[in-house]
Amino acid sequence: MIDIVKILILLILFSFTTFAANKASCETDSSECSIYCQLNDDLKCSLNNYLTKFGHKYCRQFLDNNHRFSVRGQLILSKIRSCLIRTLKSQETVTCGNVESFAMESHYTCYIESGFCDLPKPDALDVMWIIRTQFFNKKMQPYFERVLRACRR
């Protein structure tokens, strides 16, 4: 079970380690993460949309840092990524206006069903480091809290 206080303390200590910057952009991405860019283009959304500014960005950051995770962590994160992409692709009524709320709502189910709560602690710290800039995003806080509450059970 993930102990949030310990993780936050370790996260602060861990903050001296840096991850590689996300160098992939929509124009050059040929990974599975490119689905976010393709959907953004298909829907004719602005480049400041959830799909490129959050979905693609974090999908790439997790892929680019995959080597930092344990084999178990890589498997769990791969399941989460596949679930998020599959869920997004299956939504028939997605628009530029509703894609963020739809996608964020799917995070809870995908994270819990894919085994996020069973991540080894070093992997959980790496996840938190990658998403650290979102901790103070008021839109994201309810989703983080919901996942962490489920992991405490």
How are the SSEs placed, and which strands pair?
Layout: H1 4-14, H2 34-43, H3 50-64, H4 71-90, H5 99-113, H6 121-130, H7 141-152
Q: How would you describe this structure to a colleague?
A:
The protein is mostly helical. It has one domain (4-11, 24-152). It has 7 helices and no strands. The chain has helices at residues 4-14, 34-43, 50-64, 71-90, 99-113, 121-130, 141-152. Helix 1 packs across helix 6 (121-130), helix 4 runs antiparallel to helix 5 and helix 5 (99-113) runs parallel beside helix 7 (141-152). The longest helix has 20 residues, at 71-90. The chain is globular and about 40 Å long. Residues 9-24 have low confidence and may be disordered.
In short:
The protein is mostly helical and 153 residues long. It is built from seven helices and no strands. 61% of the residues lie in helices and 0% in strands.
* Element pattern in H and E: HHHHHHH
* Largest sheet properties: none
Q: Compute the number of helices.
A: 7
β-strand amount: under 5%
Tell me the helix content.
Answer: 55-70%
Q: Helix/strand/pairing class, anyone?
A: mainly alpha
Instruction: Give the number of DSSP strands.
Output: 0
Compute the separation of the termini in Å: 8 Å
The whole-number mean of residue pLDDT values reads 82
Q: How many domains is the backbone divided into?
A: 1
Overall, the morphology is globular
